[in-house]
Structures are given as structure tokens and as C-alpha cells.
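[User]
If only I could read C-alpha cells as easily as an amino acid sequence. I have put the entry right below:
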Amino acid sequence: MNIISLVSYPFLPARSGGQKGIALFYKYFSRYHQVTIVGIKNNQPELADGYELLNILPNASFRYINPFIFFKLRKLIHEKKASVFILEHPYYGWLGILLKKFCGVSLVVHSHNLEGNRWKSLGKWWWCILWNYEKLTHRYADYNFFIQDADRDYAIKNFGLNKDRCITVSFGTEISEPPSDENRTSAGSSIHQQMNIPEEIPLLLFNGAFSYSPNREALENLLFKINPLLQSGGLSYLLLICGLDIPEAISNNEYPSVRFMGFVENLDYYLMGCRTFLNPVHSGGGIKTKLVEALAFNLNVVSTENGAIGVDPLLCNGKLIVCPNDDWDVFAASIVRSVHLTNTMPAVFYDHFYWANITRRAAEFIMDDR
């Protein structure tokens, strides 16, 4: 089928988890259908892999209410002979509804969070307005993609959706099996040399985009609550903090057993070489992309309950330790336990989270009535 998708924010180059989720979904989804993505001008189309990216939308925030976009999209749908229109997030719901009505396309809403609930958790007073708009958008859709089972089940119940029109389309990984022990050992040795520390000292890792308040809160939890507990517990370790927009008020200070790496071009190198990934996120919504990536690289992971949403520990062979939200004593004790785990991620994890499998299920789902 010929498919038009609308992505209303910059995603290429893909650096954050959300950007990677878009770029990688369509990289693999385009193996099954012909895809053209309509994006904003602040993208690099040459980085599109397997699909066409047209930077049609303006960068300005008024793009979300610009009625002239309808006519551009209607023309493109006719030119491409598209039969399906995919909305990434519900914010352009009005546009998707109009295109479905006047162009005869099937409408797919690809939800990455329950946006109304996410903004409610972040304390925004207008969350209920968005919640109802989101509900309306999903009800008009022919097919609904949700990032995790809990979101799908919530929407079916509270938005009044037909369960046969809803499917879980998780964030995924490009890794189809655990990295070899040799590669992980080599990367770990290299990082130890780079940090000038003995190889027996375990490396802990946390990464994120710290302009996003849940990640910034998680970083503060690590530095001011968890790290002091680890220090008093006597564990020798080095915690590496990677990611964009680490606040200067934090990065300009020194903390025991902590190194700030900032944005790293090759995050895979650190995922390959570290022992345990830490995920003390306790707000926000949706599956945490960093969690799936870390588990795919066969790291041990210690996470809060909120941070582990969307990933079933039963798929992880004991590699994922889930702690109660805000119980930092348990979290610190779990880190100590995690550095001694030698389990391997099982094949069932990759069957579930490998991008080729995820997108194949999504591609087949929207073909059911055709």
C-alpha cells in the first residue's frame, strides 16, 4: 500500500528516544509498505532510511492550527495514490479526521503516550482538554497503534474503542540477539582504560535527554538520593551520565564516583561496555526507550515501577529488577545485587522487541480489511 505519515516535530537526525522511535519504526515498516513522511522543515531528509521524507510543514508552532496544510496533504494523497494516512501522536487529529472524510483514506493514529494522562502527571491544568481531544481522534481512527498493552487497554475502556481495531506497537531494538561476550568484554576494557580505572570496578550507566523534566528528575534522584546511599554502602563503581542538556548547575559540580559524558555520538559503545543500566524515572508516560535499548545490549537494569512500564520482567530472565517508585533504599540495594548478575537476555525478548517483528505485525494489522 501507499501510505502518507505525518510527523509534526523534528526527528532526523534521531538522537532522543522519541526521535529514534519514529526513524526506526519507518525504517522497518517501509519494508512492507511504500511510505512518504510529511515532516517539518527542521529535518535532514537525506537521513531517511527506506522511506521518503518531505519537509512540508513550517517550523513555527502555529503549524498545528494552520488550515492550509489540509490542502497540501490532500494534493499529496492524490499524487501518491495513498490509501492510508498515519498520524504520529494525536495533535493533528483535526487534520486526520478531515483527510479521512474528504480523501477516503483509512486513518491510523500512532500513540506514543496517552498524552492527556502524561501531561496530567506533569501537573498541567489543561490536560483534560487534551484528553478529550485525544479521545475524539482515536475514536475517528480506523486503526489505533499503542506503545504498550496498558495504554491500549486504557484507551479501549475509557475512549470506547473497538478492541479489534487496536494493537500494541512497542518501541523496539535493531538488535536481534545478545551481543557476544567477547564484544562486551572488549568494550568494557576500552571504557575502563578511557576512564583510567581498574577493570574490576563495575560501570553503571544512565542516559537521556535532560531537557525533558522526567529525565532531569531522574538525574537528580541519582545524584542526590541514590548515589549517597551507594557511597555509604561501600560499593566501588563508576556511574556514567550520558545525554543532551545536562543542567550546568549539575554538570559543573563534582560528585563521588560520577562522570558526566554529555552527548555521545556512539551510545552503543557505552551500552556494550557497562554492567548495569539505571532507570530511576518516576514520572511521564509510555515505555522508556532507553530501557529497551539497555536490555537489548544485555545489560542488567534496575528501574522504578514507572520506568519499567511496557516491559514485562518475565521476558528478561532476571535481568530487569523493578523497584517501588521513590524507594531509593531498595533501589540502591538492587544496584549492588545487579552488578553480580550473569544472566543472558533470552530469545523471547528479541522476538517481542525486534523492530522487524514489531513492524511486520503493524503492517499486517492494517491489511486485515483489504
